[in-house]
Amino acid sequence: MWSLVVGSSIASSSKNKEAPPILRLPTELLINIASYLSCRHPNYGYPVESANLAALSSVSRLLHAIATPLLYQQIPITSESQLGLLCRSPLKCLEYVHELNFFMDVEFLDAWRQWAFTHSTDRIPRRSIFHTFAQLLSSVHHLRSLRMRVAEISGVRSGWGKFSCTQNPTSGIPIGRPLEEAFALYKPTKLRELKKLEVDGFQDIWPLLSLAPSLETLRMCLSGGFAQYVNVELVQALRSVCSTLKHLTYTPETLRVHQRMPGILPVELFFEEFTTEDLVNELQRQDDALRGFPLASLELVALLGKILPHLETLDLQTRRFGAEEISFLSKVEPIPLDGLEDAITDMKNLKSIKLPSSLYPMSDFDIVRGLEAPHILRVSALQHLISSERQAVEQLATSRQTSSNPLSITFIRPIIPHERTDHFVTYTIFPPSQNLETCSPLSQSCTTTHSSYIQTEYGTASMDQIAPWPYTPPISLSHTLRKIWLAPTDVRHDLAISFMKDQDNGIANAVCYVGESCVGQLGWDVYQQAEGARMMMRLAYDCTYGVYYVASKLAGNV
Fold first, then answer.
1. 48-52, long-range: CB within 8 Å, 24+ apart, which pairs?
2. Residue (of 367, 388, 322) closest to 159 by Cα position
3. Cβ distance 551 to 537 under 8 Å?
4. What is the pLDDT of residue 69?
5. How crowded is residue 393: how many other Cβ atoms within 10 Å of its Cβ?
6. Helix/strand/coil for 245
7. Helix (H, G, I), strand (E, B) or coil at 153
8. Helix axes 532-540, 545-557, angle to 10 degrees
9. DSSP-assigned letters across all residues of 393-438
10. How far apart are CA 539 and CA 550, in angstroms?
């Protein structure tokens, strides 16, 4: 369809001998030029702003025919109103859609939540956000990727803070029944080209999985982790994509599905005086209880291995977002040493597995996890833990002698006895067929066992965690700036200073959108008081030329 439209536009424009020089360029070159106009995410590569491409599409019929398919191929959606506008687009334009990227702030998440919980008390009206979403899915027959991500992963504007304030922070937004009702009305067809699905904060997503028979990548994330009953929902829903799924990221609160956690430490140990012998005896008792069912705390891993035979990567690490710092969630149970190899035995194609805890004996687990134990006990427990990890990795290296692919195993634990902050520790097993000449810059050790190389790396919870939407949406920025501009003079300065301190790069992005008029409205003295000029110069290297221009002008007036 694209080639036919462009071809007819070329034919009509070629008759015009006075056409601008740019319109006389070959169509392939114009398409290549247009593909660079969208502002893309610096890490993920998808468009986050397409105003320039939209402007190009209104220049002429030829450029409209070239720019329109590019404009609709990868669409960012940041509000419920934008979702409604997209649904009203011509059907021929929606045929171009390959990626739908929802970037949700607090208001957008609230819209989904309100309609989802309305369903539990009353029948949802026909034009709820779920019906709009279902209508859109019924029109994008060539969809390849669907992302529904929380826009910012940390800070005061992050939507993750909404979940931490709820009565049950381990539950996401249940979208199963609302979507089922909406799909019954609009009857979307199978999205056979859909390969990637990423959802933040949602659970009960089986209606989406039922539309994606060719799904290869699934990501389900909730700050703090999904409750155990969601594990049951996930295992049941994954059966519709069991023959195609290769990459799974899921953030559970526990790795149990049906089994329950044995009794935790008695409360008396936290509030009454106790001897080291009392502590060791209690922990030994629970360690014996865990041995009765070694696969219980790896139940989810074992079930995923049975129903997903083609799985290559499995990430089960849970982080806590929304605060100023990103942290790993401290798990309530260890992983048994003698259960890991059995849990992944069915995953013949596995290349990477990231676990939410480590291979503690119960007697060491609670010591390392924060009881006020003597320092010598913490050092000993951590040494036991490191020894257990290496023993498990060496066993896996021995059992994978015939494999030609590397296998990386990641655990979560502290790395220093006196520090309770969790880090990830990754062991990568390289088969004998691969010659390991150099280690990664993060590598702390490279060892050899049974002709296999084992490489160890360490890192923090915030490593590789990048906000899906790197720029605050223009509407939100405009709203914030408008409130500052319309405020009385005696409070305007304080509002602007607070705005710059709280939002950091928000003021830089604001200048991107509103240009020099922002400087004139806020006043030079505001930037002087807040040291905005120096902050702007620091941010200028990571922003657009417009920010650099204004920052330089500010620096010259301070």
1. 48/76, 48/103, 48/469, 48/470, 48/471, 49/76, 49/471, 50/76
2. 322
3. yes
4. 92
5. 23
6. coil
7. coil
8. 150
9. HHHHHHHTTT--S-EEEEEEE-SSTT----EEEEEEEEPTTS---S
10. 11
Rg from Cα positions in the chain? 27
Distance, in Å, from the CA atom of 78 to the CA atom of 475, rounded to the nearest integer, reads 10
Identify the residue whose tokens are 């922070």: 169
Tell me the two tokens of residue 450.
């049974």
User: How many Å apart are CA 456 and CA 426, to the nearest integer?
Assistant: 6
CA angle 17, 35, 464 (to 5 degrees): 170
Check residue 199 and give its pLDDT. 96
Looking at residue 90, its pLDDT comes to 92
pLDDT at 251: 94
Angle at 108 (CA atoms; ends 52, 493), nearest 5 degrees: 75
Element at 200 (helix H, strand E): strand 196-200
Query: Distance between CA 96 and CA 10 in Å, rounded?
Result: 20
Q: Which of 182, 244, 243, 226 is nearest to 207 (CA)?
A: 182
- End-to-end, the C-alpha distance of the chain in Å comes to 56
How many C-beta neighbours within 10 Å does residue 43 have? 11
d(CA 554, CA 152): 28
φ and ψ at residue 234, rounded to 5 degrees: -65, -45
Closest residue by Cα to residue 414 from 475, 350, 446, 458: 458
CA distances (Å), origin 164, targets 158, 161, 323, 467, 468: 11, 5, 10, 18, 20
Residue with tokens 């992983």: 335
pTM above 0.85, yes or no: no
DSSP letter string over 71-116? HHHEEEE-SHHHHHHHHTS-HHHHTT--EEEEEE-HHHHHHHHHHH
The pLDDT assigned to 508 comes to 45
- For strands 443-449 and 352-354, give the pairing: unpaired
Residue 277 parent element (H or E): helix 276-291
Q: Are the C-beta atoms of 257 and 303 separated by less than 8 Å?
A: yes
Residue 228 has φ and ψ, to the nearest 5°, of -65, -35
For Cα atoms 280, 284, 290, give the angle at the middle one, nearest 5 degrees: 150
| Measured distance CA(177)–CA(165) in Å, rounded | 24
Q: Is 13 helix (H, G, I), strand (E, B) or coil?
A: helix
Segment-wise mean pLDDT, segments of 10 residues, the chain, 558 residues:
50 56 84 85 81 84 90 90 91 94 89 80 67 95 95 80 62 91 92 96 94 96 91 93 96 82 41 50 51 64 92 93 79 74 88 89 71 77 86 83 81 82 89 55 50 80 79 44 56 59 46 41 45 43 40 44
Distance CA 364, CA 335 (A): 12
